[in-house]
Amino acid sequence: MNFFKRVLSTIVGMTIFVALCFLILFLVIFINANSADNLVVVKKNTVLELDLYQPIDDYAGRFDYSSVPFFPNTPEYDGLFNIIDAINHAIDDPKIKGISIKNNSISAGMAQTKALRDALLSFKESGKFIVSYGDFYSQKDYYLNSVADTIYLNPAGLIDFKGLAMERMYYKDFQEKYGVKMEVIRHGKYKSAVEGYISQEMSDANREQISVFLRSIWDEMRKEISASRKISTDQLNLLADELAGRTAKLALEAKLIDKIAYEDEYEDGIQLAMGENTLINRINIYEYARHVGERYTTDSSTERIAVIYAQGQIIYGDGDEAMIGQGVMNEALKEAREDDSVKAIVLRIDSPGGSALASELIWREIELTKKVKPVIVSMGNLAASGGYYIACNADRIFAEPNTITGSIGVFGTIPNMHQLAEDLGINAEQVGTNKNSVQYSVFEPMTDEQRALIKEGIEDIYDLFTQRVADGRGMTQAAVDEIAQGRVWTGNDAVGIGLVDEIGGLDMALQAAATEANISSYDILELPVYEKDLQSILNQYTGGYIQTKEKILQEELGDKNYQLLQRMKKLTQMEGPQLLLPYEIEIK
């Protein structure tokens, strides 16, 4: 009896201990979130350090923790436009003397990198200095860093300056060897998201479109690097052909860099420029962005423009900060539409597309919204396929020169394991009450009738898609079909064919929205607001010590394998026809 009492008391004691630990942890989190010590102080003679060490989203997000009692709803400040706002604010901040860029392998898309570069150019034109150091510069890194007054490279470093390229994988022979294949139905000769399943080599149409948009992006990069480095675009092409930046010495001879030095020598150079007796203070860009403060206001009495961010793949469902769902998006559109203080809406899109149904539902909400208030679209890295679907009916569309857009086409993929099952001696039998009650089985070959029915659905969606574009852009459906067929275009090329109105970033889209709304001054309301729970808070403040299964998998598999797993997971979530970019854009 005494033994059981001791066991019971031990269990009760452990339960109370764990409960107290969670209570103390929660109190620490709450106090930390509300602490005045979190305020960022900027001192005189400060150098702003642009070390872009983490992946960059357009929108860091606003989060609603109302399900957790007493927890404050604090905004995040590490999004692309928080960083750009910080750089712009630093122009007129007398305490900020210059910018030091020390970043390798920037995790941002091409359009995001250009937006950052444009902000740095404005900073440089103010008369303040920008210097850059790298152990190694990728092409995207060099494109950003080429804006600097002085570029340093480690003596053992190199610049990967060779021109742009992409790689695509083809699985037709693999499928035939192992007996598992994807049944593919598509519309659009350029809709090559599924090409890898039906061919063992790249089609001429796909090679053509990849070559065209890579050349367009490369030309834009060379033009801007040329202006900053005073090297002709032809000479830059020659340097890329000859890999003239492959060593620090060659890069210096080619004038791609200004100095060969170690990091400590780079820091000594900054000290010399600021004055040997000057105490230099430093602040990270993310801390400074938090210092600059909120980009939106809660004062509903002022005139506002709502910036609604659509970032990630489009799925049917609620969505979150990483995935676009009609639930969260339509709620944000409705909130902005019904808010009397909001005079116009800018929809910022960074999406390769996704669910056709979800795209149509978001399109409808935009259609309802623009009857009440102007809707302007600002395209980021991607606004392709479904991403273009939700853009096409806006009052005006802006894109960056290297935005990837278009991809107006539809596809469906269905896995089939008939051959594998047959090889393994597995037979699946189906019983149904009606002719089409057993519509499709992954263990049986797809019949001609089944394929025809799916093809009919694909054609209907393509017809609806092209009609939506035609109506939104003031074109005939036949004219849209000529530039559609799943083909991908850059922002520069999209202007010429009528898919985009003007080249420009979010700032120009905001100006256009203000003009449409006939307002001269305004505050910004950022949407959506994402609901979060206690698990999210614990992960944020414990450094992931209390981990989700996704975080555990990422640590065990490594980043590359985890990304591969996520891609496979996305494929399994593709229900219904897809309006998706032909492939995942990874330019090397």
What does this protein structure show overall?
By secondary structure, the protein is of the alpha/beta class. The chain folds into 3 domains: 46-162 and 243-291, 2-enoyl-CoA Hydratase, Chain A, domain 1, CATH 3.90.226; 294-414 and 440-534, 2-enoyl-CoA Hydratase, Chain A, domain 1 (Alpha-Beta Complex), CATH 3.90.226.10; 535-571, no CATH class. Helices cover 44% and strands 19% of the residues. The protein is built from 22 helices and 22 strands. The strands form 6 sheets. Strands 9, 12, 14, 15, 16, 18, 19 and 20 form an 8-stranded mixed β-sheet that branches. It has a 6-stranded parallel β-sheet with strand order 7-5-4-3-1-8, with helices on both faces. The chain has a two-stranded parallel sheet with strand order 2-21. Helix 14 (386-389) links the parallel strand 14 (375-384) and strand 15. Helix 2 (80-91) packs across helix 11 (285-292), helix 3 packs parallel to helix 4 and helix 21 crosses helix 22 (559-572). The longest helix is centred in the N-terminal third of the chain and has 33 residues, at 2-34. The N and C termini lie far apart (71 Å).
